[in-house]
Amino acid sequence: MAKPKKFQRTVLKVLGGVGYFTLFMEWFWLLALYLPRIIDSEIGETIFPKSEPKPVEVPPVEAVPLEPSLLMTVIFVALGLAVFVLLVYVVFAKYIPGATKSARKVVHVATEKTVPIIAHKPLEKIPARKRNLLTERVQFWVKFGAASVPLVVVFVSRFHSSSIESQLLSLGFALMCGVSVAAFTLQIVIAQRWGAPKASVE
User: Fold this and answer.
1) Strands (E) located in 9-94
2) What is the mean pLDDT of residues 43-72?
3) Pick from 6, 109, 145, 202: CA 20 to 30 A from residue 103's CA?
4) Buried b or exposed e, range 73-107, using 16+ CB within 10 angstroms
5) pLDDT of residue 1
6) Alpha helices in 59-121 (DSSP H)
């Protein structure tokens, strides 16, 4: 099997990154939408009991009129731009690779746990060729399932709602699911066409 060229490895890596990052964002938004509701429910109150906060008395403070100077305005604008640049750097340099790595790790762990169940024998006792074939197939279906579950949850939970918010949420999750599945599928198809090794599509 020929070793893939640098351009081919980059394309496969980008497709995998897009798939995993979109997968991560699906689950992130799903938890952001429904985790507060679960915590506020009876089950959530049982698991996470709420303690009544003690009232804090704040002494009244006389307001002093402030007139911002031109220098202070420039400083605040500069600080705002610096914070924005920092956030962009964190998102693109730290958050996206971290999210992609986390999603990839979860998929790999799920695949490793599923393959022995399907083969009805421990992973180390499965012949190498059969193990690789099973791993590739199971990994794809784990990715497909992980991308589809958030969409199904949102669609089912808002099936009877005709509000614009529900329609936009369903559309957003459908788009994320479509992008993730399409990226993973293209990665596999292109890798097979180029004769790339299995490691290129992980």
Assistant:
1) none
2) 60
3) 6
4) eeeeeeeeeeeeeeeeeeeeeeebeebbeebbebb
5) 47
6) 70-89, 96-119
What average pLDDT does range 69-93 have in this prediction? 70
User: Which tokens go with 135?
Assistant: 């791993």
The owner of tokens 């070793």 is 3
Paired tokens of 101: 């790595």
Total-model pTM: 0.67
135/131 Cα distance (integer angstroms): 6
Q: Is 131 exposed, middle or buried (0-12, 13-18, 19+ CB in 10 A)?
A: middle
Nearest CA-CA partner of 108 in 142, 63, 60, 131: 142
Joined tokens for residue 132: 């690789």
Alpha carbons 60 and 63: distance in angstroms, whole number: 9
| 186-187-188-194 Cα dihedral, nearest 10 degrees | 100
Lookup result for tokens 């600080």: 79
Residue 98's SS3 state is helix
The phi-psi region of residue 84 (left if phi > 0; otherwise alpha if psi is between -120 and 50; otherwise beta) is alpha
Reported as a single tens digit per residue, the pLDDT across 143-162 is 999 999 999 998 888 887 77
**Percentage helix, strand, coil, to 5, in the chain?**
80, 0, 20
